[in-house]
């Protein structure tokens, strides 16, 4: 059901389908996908390293000051936003600066709002956040158009695709900008935060993964593409994180014609919903499913068969899968290389579903320098 034969549901993917459906039809996405998977991704290691270093600088400051409460989710949102802004839109942000209103806006704009008069101040805050996000997109689109008009050599990035496909429709361009911006960073930031959350309550797994990081990258700051392949246990930890906390908890496809699955008649014209969150937690597929156990993804373990799909499956699966896997590995490897973190009492393990899944209390930690070798 995740083959191109079954389209994504138009109502659910209102905005995304505009841009991506069209690009798939043109074949542009096949090209994008190939580029994203191969040499282009290698070339992104510089950006991943550089932006992750900014986060490390910020954490070094906080560890020096012995700050008692840090929201890891907020910090991770900063780094993944910095990365996507640079890679997709060629804009340099520096969101590790606490003063940035932009980071807060982006976070607020995904909030679930209940239309209750008592919520008025919060609703206004969310509206303001959305306005700021859209105004930023409109400004970047305007800057890029001006650059093109003035004959400036511009990168062949996502922003160019957005300009090409929206014709003269400025609103659509901004819609697509916001969608890609959020799709391209929020999910990865949530995954990183959940990963810290699970490592924090599994000291033995934390020690094992730190040892691997020490063995593979030691004290060096510049992580190379080749190093990523050797961080196999860290890969397992990140995969297991997405099994328990599928940051995009589900997807959907239109069933165009009648069909029978496992003896059950499915009438054409209905929408099939797939919950990677639910399948990831089913005993039928994963023994003792609520236990965080990265060894399920050991290279020699049997591969999960159509029951593990945090990036969806098939040709319309996540375009940023490899990008996200590299980015999260670089950030986690640097973090584990240099810091110890301890939850503070206000930290909870509750989840918040705002279309994407995030840790409700933001993974609140105090952070200290690691004494090598510790
Ligand atoms: C942990 C990180 C991420 C997760 C779990 C994730 C998951 C997903 C899922 C489940 C879908 C829906 C696919 C479907 O409905 O079949 C999707 C779509 C998409 N994702 Fe991601 N994603 C992540 C990171 C990223 C990043 C970093 C980018 C960009 C650099 C990105 C770009 C996209 C795009 C463009 C689509 C739409 C693809 C299409 O419609 O053809 N994602 N993602």
From TrEMBL:
Binding-site residues for heme, renumbered to this chain: 318
UniProt record, GO biological process: cholesterol catabolic process
Molecular function in Gene Ontology: cholesterol 24-hydroxylase activity; heme binding; iron ion binding
Protein name: Cytochrome P450, family 46, subfamily A, polypeptide 1, tandem duplicate 4
The family this protein is said to belong to: Belongs to the cytochrome P450 family.
Keyword Lipoprotein: no
Transmembrane segments: 22-41
Cited Pfam families: p450
Listed cofactors: heme
Keyword Zinc among UniProt keywords: no
Record keywords, A-Z: Heme, Iron, Membrane, Metal-binding, Transmembrane, Transmembrane helix
InterPro entries according to UniProt: CYP46A1, Cyt_P450, Cyt_P450_E_grp-I, Cyt_P450_sf
The organism of origin for this protein: Sphaeramia orbicularis (orbiculate cardinalfish)
């Amino acid at each position: 059901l995740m083959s191109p034969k079954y389209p994504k549901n138009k109502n659910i993917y209102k905005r995304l389908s505009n841009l991506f459906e069209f690009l798939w039809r043109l074949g542009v996405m096949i090209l994008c996908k190939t580029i994203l998977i191969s040499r282009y991704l290698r070339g992104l290691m510089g950006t991943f390293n550089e932006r992750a270093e900014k986060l490390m600088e910020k954490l070094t400051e906080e560890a020096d000051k012995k700050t008692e409460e840090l929201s890891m989710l907020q910090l991770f949102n900063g780094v993944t936003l910095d990365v996507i802004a640079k890679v997709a839109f060629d804009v340099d942000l520096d969101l590790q600066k606490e003063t940035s209103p932009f980071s807060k806006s982006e976070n607020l704009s995904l909030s679930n709002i209940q239309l209750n008069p008592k919520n008025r101040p919060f609703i206004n805050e969310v509206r303001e956040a959305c306005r700021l996000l859209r105004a930023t997109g409109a400004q970047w689109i305007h800057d890029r158009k001006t650059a093109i008009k003035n004959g400036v050599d511009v990168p062949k990035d996502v922003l160019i695709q957005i300009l090409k496909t929206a014709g003269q429709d400025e609103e659509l361009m901004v819609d697509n900008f916001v969608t890609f911006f959020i799709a391209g960073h929020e999910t990865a930031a949530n995954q990183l935060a959940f990963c810290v959350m699970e490592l924090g309550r599994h000291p033995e797994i934390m020690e094992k993964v730190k040892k691997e990081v020490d063995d593979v990258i030691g004290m060096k700051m510049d992580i190379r593409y080749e190093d990523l392949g050797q961080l196999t246990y860290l890969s397992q930890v990140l995969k297991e994180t997405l099994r328990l906390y599928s940051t995009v908890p589900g997807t959907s496809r239109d069933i165009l014609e009648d069909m029978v699955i496992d003896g059950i008649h499915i009438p054409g014209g209905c929408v099939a919903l797939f919950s990677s969150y639910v399948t990831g937690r089913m005993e039928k597929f994963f023994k003792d499913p609520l236990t965080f156990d990265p060894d399920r993804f050991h290279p020699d373990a049997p591969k999960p068969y159509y029951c593990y799909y945090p990036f969806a499956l098939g040709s319309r699966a996540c375009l940023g899968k490899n990008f996200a896997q590299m980015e999260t590995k670089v950030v986690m490897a640097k973090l584990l290389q240099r810091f110890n973190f301890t939850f503070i009492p206000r930290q909870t393990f509750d989840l918040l579903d705002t279309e994407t899944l995030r840790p409700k209390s933001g993974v609140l930690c105090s952070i200290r320098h690691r004494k090598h070798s510790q």
